[in-house]
Write a structure and sequence with these properties.
Largest sheet: 7 strands, mixed
Radius of gyration: 23 Å
Number of strands: 13
Order of helices and strands: HEHHEHEHEHEEEHHEHEHEHEHEHEH
Structural class: alpha/beta
Distance between the termini: 49 Å
Length: 383
């Protein structure tokens, strides 16, 4: 029987505490060489958290590093959740999978597996490691940066006034704080760990690279039925307060299909079954569905639509990253930090931080303006 996830998390925390204790006792802080940009040939960026939106918000950093070091070998270390989505990114030469479950399989530590992984990192002879952080610090990422043996390692020294207990793994511990600076988008926050590199401004657009084969497959699976334009809807969200009411989503989809002449696509991931079922049961029109597909298949599907209407969740970022306009709905979270940036995108923020206070009239108004269409909710009045 496999150990419960809670047991694995407790085990992981225990291993981290033990490792940090040993590291503090053994580590001797050395005098580090000043950063020499002209000596940087091989670069690793570590972003091994599971949040999809956080990863895609780091893509401007990837572009900036590539622009600053056009001839360097650049690799990205990811978790299994985000590994596939970063494949084929034009700024990267390699995407390295870090799956911590391999080292804790069967409810016990496998040190030899970890040692082999560390050796594989060291064999790549990185000169520079960057570990961006905007929401939380990671002792695992800090250790992996040190384990590479890179000459220069840039990561979090402190985050919003909280000292990083494993900052000693870095040659430069960067003080990160955006308090009192007004709204600072996550794409910009990801850049701040590398401020000493004088990176060029990459803009705030997200990007996700699709292959021609993936696009062709999506065209076969989700065709333009009757030649109609398509609009996608992501009605779920991992956090319940981020979900706009299902009946209003259904109201809008009825209008988009019945009055505006679009073909609607519902995006349903592994955690979206409840919201999608609630919307589906209230619909009066037929829709296409993307159900439990891989994230790259979802991205390929989204690349075909004219507009994505989404709650604040990872799929919102995927839509923006494949280059389609996104209308995003925000309740308690801050769109000035998280909403896609650019003239093609719009967001609606609840005035009360309760997403249910966004009306269907507001959403339909933005849809019609963004698509150049007109119409009213089909069969019933907007709530």
């Amino acid at each position: 029987m496999s150990p419960a996830p809670g047991h694995l998390r407790r085990m992981e925390r225990g291993v981290k505490r033990m490792a940090l204790t040993v590291a503090r006792a053994l580590f001797r802080q050395r005098r580090h060489d000043p950063l020499q940009s002209d000596a940087i040939r091989r670069i690793l960026i570590i972003r091994q958290h599971n949040q999809l939106g956080d990863m895609l918000c780091a893509t401007p950093l990837l572009r900036a590093v590539r622009s600053r070091f056009p001839d360097a070998f650049i690799a990205l270390l990811t978790s299994p959740v985000n590994h596939a989505v970063m494949m084929h990114h034009p700024a990267l030469d390699e995407t390295i999978l870090f799956d911590k479950r391999q080292f804790l399989a069967g409810g016990r530590l496998h040190p030899l597996r970890l040692i082999r992984f560390v050796r594989s990192l060291r064999a790549r002879t990185f000169d520079l490691v960057l570990v961006p952080a905007t929401v939380s610090m990671s002792a695992t990422s800090d250790f992996l940066a040190y384990a590479t043996g890179a000459r220069w390692r840039l990561g979090v020294g402190s985050l919003e006034g909280v000292e990083n207990p494993s900052a000693f793994f870095y040659t430069e511990g960067v003080v990160l704080s955006w308090t009192g600076k007004g709204p600072v988008h996550q794409t910009i926050r990801n850049m701040d760990v590398a401020r000493s590199l004088s990176l060029p401004d990459p803009g705030q657009a997200l990007n996700l690279e699709l292959t021609e084969e993936e696009k062709a497959s999506a065209a076969r699976k989700w065709p333009n039925r009757g030649g109609r334009r398509m609009m996608a809807f992501h009605v779920g969200a991992g956090k319940v307060p981020n979900r706009w009411p299902a009946d209003r989503f259904a109201n809008i989809i009825d209008a988009v299909v019945g009055n505006l002449g679009y073909d609607a696509i519902l995006i349903c991931g592994p955690m979206d079954g409840g919201p999608v079922e609630a919307v589906s049961s209230a619909l009066h029109v037929d829709v296409q569905r993307v159900v439990n597909e891989s994230i790259r298949a979802v991205a390929s599907c989204l690349s075909r639509v004219d507009l994505l209407v989404s709650n604040d969740t990872g799929i919102m970022h995927v839509g923006a990253a494949v280059g389609i306009p996104v209308l995003s709905l925000f309740g308690p979270t801050d769109p000035q930090q998280w909403a896609p940036v650019g003239p093609r995108h719009r967001c609606i923020k609840s005035r009360t931080s309760d997403i249910a206070d966004i009306t269907a009239e507001e959403v339909l108004k933005h849809i019609t303006e963004m698509t150049g269409s007109t119409g009213a909710p089909a069969g019933r009045r907007a709530q």
